[in-house]
């Protein structure tokens, strides 16, 4: 198992590592740790380590041909979803869904430059 000083890691396969690093660090508050573009980069936000694997990386090469993306996404909690939507739209980004409300809160989906999904989520009563 992990300890509190370790990251939980998620790998996203991307077409352009530099564009992905720019997207996550500029718009979503990640910090770059390792950047050996065009093959690979490693960005973090809190305990989440996002591994960005370009076409030349071993992580991308290990993905079988014809594999399509699932409905998985990273989940980022925000305090004010409407303010985040306004900020990101103001930066020229568009969303993959409308705001959806449920018993636990509200969410909207955003895609990175390679089409990987990011869920922005505001908990009920936040």
Automatic annotation (TrEMBL):
<keyword id="KW-0560">Oxidoreductase</keyword>
<dbReference type="Pfam" id="PF00903">
    <property type="entry name" value="Glyoxalase"/>
</dbReference>
<keyword id="KW-0223">Dioxygenase</keyword>
<dbReference type="GO" id="GO:0046491">
    <property type="term" value="P:L-methylmalonyl-CoA metabolic process"/>
</dbReference>
<keyword id="KW-0479">Metal-binding</keyword>
<dbReference type="GO" id="GO:0046872">
    <property type="term" value="F:metal ion binding"/>
</dbReference>
<dbReference type="GO" id="GO:0051213">
    <property type="term" value="F:dioxygenase activity"/>
</dbReference>
<dbReference type="InterPro" id="IPR029068">
    <property type="entry name" value="Glyas_Bleomycin-R_OHBP_Dase"/>
</dbReference>
<feature type="domain" description="VOC">
    <location>
        <begin position="6"/>
        <end position="123"/>
    </location>
</feature>
<protein>
    <submittedName>
        <fullName>Catechol 2,3-dioxygenase</fullName>
    </submittedName>
</protein>
<dbReference type="GO" id="GO:0004493">
    <property type="term" value="F:methylmalonyl-CoA epimerase activity"/>
</dbReference>
<dbReference type="InterPro" id="IPR037523">
    <property type="entry name" value="VOC_core"/>
</dbReference>
<dbReference type="InterPro" id="IPR051785">
    <property type="entry name" value="MMCE/EMCE_epimerase"/>
</dbReference>
<dbReference type="InterPro" id="IPR004360">
    <property type="entry name" value="Glyas_Fos-R_dOase_dom"/>
</dbReference>
């Amino acid at each position: 198992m992990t300890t509190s000083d370790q990251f939980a890691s998620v790998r996203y396969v991307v077409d352009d590592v530099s564009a992905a690093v720019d997207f996550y660090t500029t718009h979503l508050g990640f910090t770059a740790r390792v950047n050996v573009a065009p093959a690979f980069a490693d960005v973090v936000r809190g305990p989440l380590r996002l591994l960005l694997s370009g076409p030349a990386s071993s992580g991308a090469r290990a993905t079988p041909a014809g594999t399509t993306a699932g409905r998985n996404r990273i989940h980022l909690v925000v305090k004010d979803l409407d303010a985040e939507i306004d900020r990101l739209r103001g930066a020229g980004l568009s969303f993959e869904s409308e705001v959806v409300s449920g018993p636990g809160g509200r969410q909207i989906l955003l895609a990175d430059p390679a089409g990987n999904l990011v869920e922005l989520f505001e908990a009920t009563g936040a």
